[in-house]
Design a protein that fits this description.
Blueprint: H1 4-20, H2 27-50, H3 57-86, H4 90-99, H5 103-115, H6 131-146, H7 157-173, H8 184-199, H9 206-225, H10 227-233, H11 240-248, H12 254-260, H13 268-295, H14 300-337, H15 340-345
C-alpha cells in the first residue's frame, strides 16, 4: 500500500513537471488531489486535537497560519528578488499593474502578498502556485463551521457522495473567468470528499483501488495516444477539454488517496517526503524563473541538461529550506498547539 508522504511528494513532482514540460498536463489534477487530502487531514486534526477545548477557533486558525505563512513569505520574497534580477523592469510592471486597481484592490493585493488571503484574485503575482494556498486558507476559515455538520454526514454517505460528485460536475462546467472560480466555493467539493472519507471512515478494497488505478492509467494512455486528444491536453493546457479532464480525473484516485492515509506508522523517509512536499511545491517556482530565462533559444540536448539541473537544484533547495527553516518553525508550532497557552486561548 502506498504511504501518504510518498503520495504527497508524487503530486508535488507532478506540479513541477507540469511547469517544465508540455508532456505532463496534470498540474491542476495534482492540486485537486491535494485539496482532497487536505480535507481529510484537517478533519482528522480538528477532530482529534482541537475538539478538546470548548472554543477551538482561535488556536486552530493560529496553527494553520503558522503552518502556511513562514514558508510562503520567504519564497514569495525570494521569487520577487529573483524576478527583479532577471527582469529589471519587473518592479515597474508591478507598479503599472497595481496603479490600474482601485484603492481597495491595491490594499488587498499587497496584503495578499503577506497573508495569502485574496492572492488568487490577482493574475499579476510572482509566486503563482500560491493561488492554491489562498483556497486552502479559505477552507480553513470555513472548516470550524462545517465541523458541526460533517460528522452527521456519515449517516447519509450515499446521498452526500452523490451530491458531491454532482457538485464536481457543476464545478467543471464553470467558466474560469467567473469570480467564483477564484474562491473556495468551486473547490469545496474536493475538500468535502476528503472530510467525508474521514468522518465516514471510508476505505476501499485492494481490488477496488487497483481497478480505479488501472482506469486512470487507461484514460491517460488514451489521451496520450489519440492525436486530437493529445493536442487538447499536451499542447493546449488551457483548452476546455483539458480543464474538464483535470477536474474529473481526481475522482479516479479517491480509493488510492483514501487507503494511503489509513496506512500504519510512517517511515522516517515517508515523513520526510510528505513534509518537504509543501516546500517543494513553492520552491520549484522560484527556481523556475532563472530556468525559463536560460532555456530560451537552446537546442534539445541543452534543454534536457538544463531540465535535469533544474530538478536537482529544486529538490536540493527544497530539502535545505525544509531542514533549516520550515522544520524548526513547524516544530515550535506543534509544541505550541499542545501547550497551556494554546488551551488558554481556546
Amino acid at each position: 500500500m502506498i504511504r501518504p508522504g510518498l503520495v504527497r511528494f508524487a503530486l508535488a513532482i507532478l506540479v513541477v513537471l507540469f511547469h517544465i514540460t508540455k508532456f505532463v498536463f496534470l498540474g491542476h489534477f495534482a492540486v485537486l488531489c491535494f485539496f482532497m487530502l487536505s480535507g481529510y487531514w484537517i478533519a482528522y486534526m480538528y477532530n482529534s486535537k482541537y475538539k478538546v477545548a470548548n472554543k477551538t477557533f482561535l488556536p486552530f486558525y493560529i496553527s494553520r497560519l503558522w503552518r502556511l505563512l513562514p514558508v510562503y513569505m520567504l519564497l514569495n520574497a525570494l521569487a520577487f528578488l529573483v524576478a527583479v534580477h532577471y527582469n529589471y523592469n519587473y518592479t515597474a510592471e508591478v507598479a503599472s499593474y497595481t496603479k490600474q486597481l482601485s484603492i481597495v484592490n491595491q490594499l488587498l493585493f499587497w496584503l495578499s502578498n503577506v497573508f495569502i488571503l485574496g492572492f488568487g484574485l490577482f493574475p499579476k503575482q510572482v509566486l503563482s502556485p500560491a493561488w492554491s494556498l489562498d483556497v486552502e486558507l479559505q477552507f480553513y476559515l470555513l472548516f470550524p463551521f462545517l465541523f458541526y455538520f460533517l460528522p452527521k454526514a456519515k449517516h447519509y454517505l450515499p446521498q452526500v457522495s452523490g451530491l458531491l460528485l454532482l457538485a464536481v460536475g457543476i464545478v467543471s462546467m464553470l467558466s474560469p473567468d467567473l469570480f467564483i472560480s477564484k474562491t473556495v466555493i468551486v473547490y469545496l467539493p474536493y475538500f468535502l470528499i476528503g472530510s467525508v472519507i474521514y468522518f465516514g471512515d471510508i476505505s476501499f478494497s485492494k481490488r477496488t483501488e487497483t481497478l480505479f488505478n488501472i482506469s486512470l492509467i487507461l484514460v491517460l494512455a488514451i489521451n496520450y495516444a489519440v492525436p486530437f486528444l493529445r493536442d487538447a491536453t499536451v499542447y493546449h493546457h488551457l483548452s476546455d477539454y483539458n480543464r474538464y479532464l483535470n477536474n474529473y480525473l481526481p475522482l479516479l484516485l479517491i480509493p488510492l488517496l483514501s487507503n494511503s492515509v489509513r496506512t500504519g506508522s510512517k517511515s522516517i523517509m515517508d515523513s520526510l517526503l510528505g513534509n518537504v512536499s509543501y516546500v517543494l511545491y513553492l520552491t520549484h517556482w522560484v527556481v523556475l524563473i532563472p530556468y525559463l530565462y536560460y532555456m530560451q533559444g537552446q537546442n534539445t540536448t541543452t534543454k534536457l541538461l538544463y531540465s535535469a539541473t533544474y530538478l536537482i537544484v529544486t529538490l536540493c533547495s527544497s530539502y535545505l529550506i525544509y531542514t533549516f527553516y520550515d522544520k524548526p518553525i513547524d516544530k515550535l508550532r506543534r509544541k505550541w498547539t499542545v501547550s497551556k497557552e494554546s488551551l488558554r486561548l481556546a
